[in-house]
Amino acid sequence: MIESSLTLKNPTRLTYGMVGGGEGSFIGDVHRKAAAFDGKTDLVCGCFSQDEQKTLDTGLGLGIPPSRLYKNYVDMAREEGARENRIDFVVIVTPNVTHYPIAKAFLENGFHVVCDKPVTVTSAEAAELEKLAREKNLFFCVTYTYTGYPMVKHAREMIRQGVLGEIRFVNAEYPQDWLSTLLEASGQKQAAWRSDPARTGASNCVGDIGSHIENMISYLTGFKIKRLCARLDTMVEGRILDDNASIMVDYDNGSKGLYWSSQIAVGHDNDFRVRIYGSKASIEWSQENPNYLKVSYLGKPTETLSRGRDELSVHAGTYPRIPSGHPEGYYEAFANIYKTFVTMLIKKKEGETPTEGDLDFPGIGDGRQGVVFIERCVESSRRGAIWVDF
Amino acid sequence: MIESSLTLKNPTRLTYGMVGGGEGSFIGDVHRKAAAFDGKTDLVCGCFSQDEQKTLDTGLGLGIPPSRLYKNYVDMAREEGARENRIDFVVIVTPNVTHYPIAKAFLENGFHVVCDKPVTVTSAEAAELEKLAREKNLFFCVTYTYTGYPMVKHAREMIRQGVLGEIRFVNAEYPQDWLSTLLEASGQKQAAWRSDPARTGASNCVGDIGSHIENMISYLTGFKIKRLCARLDTMVEGRILDDNASIMVDYDNGSKGLYWSSQIAVGHDNDFRVRIYGSKASIEWSQENPNYLKVSYLGKPTETLSRGRDELSVHAGTYPRIPSGHPEGYYEAFANIYKTFVTMLIKKKEGETPTEGDLDFPGIGDGRQGVVFIERCVESSRRGAIWVDF
Amino acid sequence: MIESSLTLKNPTRLTYGMVGGGEGSFIGDVHRKAAAFDGKTDLVCGCFSQDEQKTLDTGLGLGIPPSRLYKNYVDMAREEGARENRIDFVVIVTPNVTHYPIAKAFLENGFHVVCDKPVTVTSAEAAELEKLAREKNLFFCVTYTYTGYPMVKHAREMIRQGVLGEIRFVNAEYPQDWLSTLLEASGQKQAAWRSDPARTGASNCVGDIGSHIENMISYLTGFKIKRLCARLDTMVEGRILDDNASIMVDYDNGSKGLYWSSQIAVGHDNDFRVRIYGSKASIEWSQENPNYLKVSYLGKPTETLSRGRDELSVHAGTYPRIPSGHPEGYYEAFANIYKTFVTMLIKKKEGETPTEGDLDFPGIGDGRQGVVFIERCVESSRRGAIWVDF
Amino acid sequence: MIESSLTLKNPTRLTYGMVGGGEGSFIGDVHRKAAAFDGKTDLVCGCFSQDEQKTLDTGLGLGIPPSRLYKNYVDMAREEGARENRIDFVVIVTPNVTHYPIAKAFLENGFHVVCDKPVTVTSAEAAELEKLAREKNLFFCVTYTYTGYPMVKHAREMIRQGVLGEIRFVNAEYPQDWLSTLLEASGQKQAAWRSDPARTGASNCVGDIGSHIENMISYLTGFKIKRLCARLDTMVEGRILDDNASIMVDYDNGSKGLYWSSQIAVGHDNDFRVRIYGSKASIEWSQENPNYLKVSYLGKPTETLSRGRDELSVHAGTYPRIPSGHPEGYYEAFANIYKTFVTMLIKKKEGETPTEGDLDFPGIGDGRQGVVFIERCVESSRRGAIWVDF
């Protein structure tokens, strides 16, 4: 045992609860691993399922006492709201259509929120949550995972500093192939809810992955979409919603964009790729090879920046956890979203003022904008793939 | 010396002449190297420039006697037409706007024609040449180079045989960066004529490279475009024509396509890439890495086919000249266009009936379709990037 | 709160302590994240440094009470050994030369051990630990990280099943560039201890990374080295130990190997790459792109297997945690070593008999063999890069 | 027809003859295409086979009159030597063991020589040819193709200018898989002569492809080998000569090298790859992707140089024939060897003094050194893979 004469300092830790994410859920486990990654949070309560036994099994497996496992989210929001050692924030990982009422309940009980994207299924709901969070002075993080990668953060900084010159064109794509067949007919859980308008909203492909493109480009460039022209296709017979989408975008500064997302592009796993072309240089980043950033300049050789090896901007440089060549992946990117959110809440709890970097997580404003994007794409396509204003 | 008792067989060879391609020309030299590659043709006359001295210098450097070097193409077409040992075909490598009158003159004098793309600057001109060639029973090859690559020919065969299943979506792009600045202002020859409507026609980017996409997809799939929606951008200040183009395409069988061509995409040299997604499999081919073909199947690992190593279709398999791993490039692809055209003419000369494979070169019909494509893109974009019928 | 009528099942969890890994340590944090990844373990005690204040600060930051923070490893082994709620295992992450006494102390007090590689600096020490563990019936895991990648596990299974035919040749390399300059002179901590014989043992480059090659090839093929010829170079002036090593290996079955490890190979981050050539097929795997496995067959196209997308062997298939295209990296591989070790200990605790798969973690036998490899390489090189028996 | 008042200038052209290269030969056709590529040479005579009818058929197909087709090389050397319009040089493309007498005959008759590698099967023969060429003041080009690639020439210039700093380590490999089975037993022509000591000499794998490594590294670095340790393997049962070789090399300046060549490395077509590591930077070049050069620096991002796009050294910059992104391959590299040799001979014929760049083709000295390398590797391996002096 250590001498008692030494200084003792207990660092601040946060507690949180979760709604959704019962056994068999994919994203619930991802959130728990990401939140736990840096060892600053403890999951202490939850309502993991509408099935009480499942909530109990999941909760006990996570070391949560039955006293803080709840039948439904309404009880959870109210009872946790009344506790002295109440949680610091709640994580919502339920199907899209339920995000709104759950988030609302927790905001009303004074909790910060972390919620999956798309944050709601209508922009009106999103706007309401945004207003509520502002009024209550609460933080609301929408987990667009991919902006958590350090090379993305560095790319944003390069763009901000003008390294690319004036940005002329954006080409971003997100092809997958897992819905190349009518997988939802087999009862596969992920396919079933994503392709069902009653649970997922008005779009499948744009809602699930096209919206990541919108968020990423908005994050990297800060550009506002002025108008767009979207052709949403349903390529697999028997499917109700879109599984492939081509979208032309005009930004309000005169730059142009071209987005493609697909779930029927055979051979692609999760091949989110972004290319941004400026008057002086361009960048290319690929989610499946996320530790590298290709940068091409006019008049000099193309460079490949390696996370850890090459110098990153000060802010981006705070995210990597291991040396170059030791690949960091999806979990680490997700953990970075939490790292920023949690660090910010800890600072707030300790009375510190968050810096700009501390607020570098996707917020409810980004979430609302994402829902508007989905709505406009659906509208454009329904009207014959015509141009609609954003 | 060899015994005279042995059998002597003199193989048939062809002669040709060239219009354009004087010193300093890029594409003229490419045509000459390509035509010479397999040792079946001899360049025996020409009018390489409007400047007689240049024609003389170029011609003598190529070993052509002054008696078959011409002041202008009109003389050349007429005089060659009157010779007993007249050339078998003519190659036209002048700026776009002059293709039509030159081709017409040679067709009228009974010559087969090889001409650069786009074959004309209006579809009416192209239709007239097509009619003339048909009436005169002459062959007219339009040198869309990229269909000459063996892996492209194999990909077409795979598609024909149904390996990909029903084709759902095509994503093709052709980014370059050489016009990222106002290069034409510097007097650079290639930039100057390509960006000048008086020499190049109504489009720069779509006309020069977007048209390669149209031809390639048409070659690979056989699909007909039903309608398209094109946004042509001029990204560099001071430029008159387009330097970036995003095009949505609906094919008449319900499949969809997305084309992007650009000359301002910093970091891309000549990065023509084609991806075709079917219900069972997809293919990906890139011009900068042309000896490989990526094939992805649903439910089994992605394959990389290597020219020479892996089995090609019978027809595609006749094109490679060296073993696998010895890269064949642009010149060899170009030489393949000539190889097919020349083999066909030799067979014809020897009284043989050409097979389907002997006719596997881009013809005047393909050339005309390419001009229509350019016209439709320009029209769509001028009217606000709206959908126009093909 | 949940109804009390439901079934309650508390899953078994493990506790562990750590020696080494104080603030500023790289590998200590990696071990903690890896052990925590799947939520089955709790770190409950430790001696993180020889500096008590540092142990205290580190421990409190990790939520460990002062009562289970120890001045030195001797106290820790003894006191924890005497507790009723004693830890299940200890993790040793100190410099190489101290592994032996620390591991010995914990084995003697009846603890399972997880220890960094190389497990000791002499093979005699390793043999002694192996004997002790066997006598005490304790498990001893040596954390050769890279065998934790799922694609490596699948490759091993392919080899075992004879997919490659008879293996003829192995080419494995592990180049890095971080010691291209005399970094240790700057006081950089990682460089300082690794290049110091007093802390790292008789070899730097072979000991640190060459030994990963030995372990990986042994894991994949099961081959025994019969003799080797090693040339160890010291390329940077002022350095004492090797920083580059070329090693020819003859296996006892007649197969041959060629290993190269380097810390002065400019441009390589952590570029561990393995290629194994058989009479029927070959595999290639690269640590920097770990979610893919290239498989080439005689007479059919080369395949790229994607983790999550393509079917893995039953055992390998239990390791991935997220769908294909969501990259898993170094932390997840490291977590897989712990996952196997912890699952095995939990089964043991619950009275179950571990299966072969449950024992798929690198053990003390592997660790001892690794030390022998380092010794033989040093011996061969010192005697003029001659062949020495293994 | 052109005005007769204009200036006429007839450029100098060269004529050559060929020994070997009859129908069915691979390399003969490659030489002819390469020699013809830039339009400065004419093939005017030959002895293409020991079979007269085959020589006749081949020759007529190439447009050569029967009067300059020869029964055997002895006649050809003598008769051509006696002609007024005698050829400028001879090309020898016969099996290795016959190079020596043929080259000798032509040198003795005063002809410059182009000969395939390895130039002879013993170093004594090579030394004799070297002496003879020097005495007769004749040029002798040994066609190590791969130094003809522009990016290789640029890499050499970078090394000469010290961009890499002091070179520490070379890792070069040349794996193929075409001899993974006992192909020679099937009668395949290429396999049959290469694996037959009577036609190919003492080594197959080192002689055929390992020797390319030796030449390339010598070309790039100028390093002299001091000693080497070679393990030559015969992996396929029934084969007489080596099909896999691992070679450690010590250069006389203290740098070290590691070479691997293989014909049984399943999955590799012609995968010649060179990596050179210096104290400041490294380069990597791959023959299968020859238009690019990877350059890594300490302390800045890795660069990918693109032929045509990025600035090459003045000398290297004279070789590319087409813009960047239009791939140049094996034929163009081979044509570059001829381009240099032919340009030099033309200059000589016109009385000009060749510059250093004009002499940038592999000469008989390089050829002799290559044969010594093969001999030393065979010797080292036969004596138990021990170190032997060069």
Please specify the SSE layout and strand pairing:
Four copies of one chain form a homotetramer.
Chain A: E1 14-20, H1 27-36, E2 41-47, H2 52-61, H3 73-82, E3 89-93, H4 96-108, E4 112-115, H5 123-136, E5 140-142, H6 150-160, E6 167-175, H7 189-194, H8 197-200, H9 205-221, E7 225-233, E8 244-251, E9 256-262, E10 273-278, E11 281-286, E12 292-297, E13 300-306, H10 330-349, H11 364-382, E14 387-389
Parallel strand pairs in A: 1-2, 1-3, 3-4, 4-5, 6-9
Antiparallel strand pairs in A: 6-10, 7-8, 7-14, 8-9, 10-11, 11-12, 12-13
Please give a quick description of this structure:
Chain A has 390 residues and is an alpha/beta fold. Helix content of chain A is 34%, strand content 22%. In chain A, helix 1 (27-36) packs across helix 10, helix 5 (123-136) runs antiparallel to helix 11 (364-382) and helix 9 packs across helix 11 (364-382).
Number of helices of chain A: 11
- Write down the overall geometry of chain A: globular
Terminal-residue CA separation of chain A: 64 Å
CATH topology of the largest domain in chain A, anyone? Dihydrodipicolinate Reductase, domain 2
Q: How many strand units of chain A?
A: 14
**Fraction of residues in H or I helices of chain A:** 25-40%
CATH architecture of the largest domain in chain A: 2-Layer Sandwich
CATH-defined superfamily of the largest domain in chain A: Dihydrodipicolinate Reductase, domain 2
